[in-house]
Design a protein that fits this description.
The chain contains 15 helices and 16 strands. By secondary structure, it is α/β, with parallel strands linked by helices.
Amino acid sequence: MRLYSTLSRQVEELQPTGSTIKMYLCGTTPYEQSHVGHAMSAIVFDVLRRYLEFRGHLVFHLQNFTDVDDKIIERSSRLGIPPAELAERYAGEYLADLERLNVLRATRYVRATEEIGQIIEIISDLIEKGFAYEVGGDVYFRVGSDPDYGKLSRHTTEELMAGARIEVDDRKENATDFALWKAAKPGEPSWESPWGHGRPGWHIECSAIVLRHLGPQIDIHGGGQDLIFPHHENEIAQSESHTGEVPFARIWVHNGMVQMGETKMSKSLGNFVTIREALQEYSADAIRLAVLTSHYRSPMVYSAESMQAAERGIHRLLQALIGDSADVEQVPEKLAEAAGNARRRFTEAMDEDLNTSAALAQLFELAREINRARADGVGPGALLPVQNELRELASVLGLRLQQESTDLEARPFVDLLVSVRTELRQAKMWQLSDRIRDQLSELNVVVEDRPDGSTWRPG
């Protein structure tokens, strides 16, 4: 398989360093509901993982939650709840949203606050080696100590200063130096360290998580294009300076952004659609199809028109799968050849930088061949093996291709009932919460209780 690496600006052959492909994906900062932009990144890397496993690879997929951050602290203060409680609430909602989108759970999720010891250890080493310095309880990475700084974003230090949001602090040796550790402010969560009470900066958590769970070098590092600078640039600098192992990640894969019209979808801009809002309007398969119709490095335009087109596309694939269960019969030669060609071309497309658009074209071509054969009188028993081929290739893209048994218009009401049931369970009103679950079950809604919250799916 070949993937475009942001680091080399080339399509490179994926050459795993060991028997298991080590893939790290930057997760979310859970301070409110996740939006379609988060869904796009999750879907892209879910498909990459599914395809690698389809090709016979073992994949260790690691992902973080930034559960201590300025935005979490500010929002939790405004709502009057502990920051840790706020972060866990929205981390749970994010995982529930991804489950409804048929995104596989990562091999492991790690919270930043679970790695404080490892973070302190790395920062101490960077100070000892001269890559970092402490001032007034804060610790900064000395950007000038890394001659390769800027190799990911391909900018000089001067260009980075001009184009980046630089945190003003007269105590820093250089304006581009970035925070590894922040001294505690009153009322903020903090931990004891050699530099006093404080909390980690944003970038250091990813280095600590990767080093502890995957080691000093990984195969694939992923995230959105908005993370190239400063986050991933800083992550490379601190990781390679600490370990001396180069490269920190062999291939850097960055997905494009979701756009609302001409503007990037963003929480900070306030122009976002949450995953839950999208799922109230459209099926999970349609959302996935809309993401995968574009190349993962290109922007995705989210609009009513694009989503309705995706729904129609899913409907066309579903039409090809219509048929009563039957005993398998001999597949006509022409149809068997079409199935074989679809698989081969699907694999060729996915092998070449995860070209999901070209791969989807093979699904639609195979669906047309199935419909054509049915119209020519081919029976369900002869269609079934080819339909199963279509289902298998679709599953590599995470498409369920199942008729929705719960009307989209009913979803907000089901969400509300599940939310009320969660509150009843927290209040230990078990009889009433069980009654809601049982009545939802009668409506073909399956409620699943997890440690991080309750989710539901059509039965």
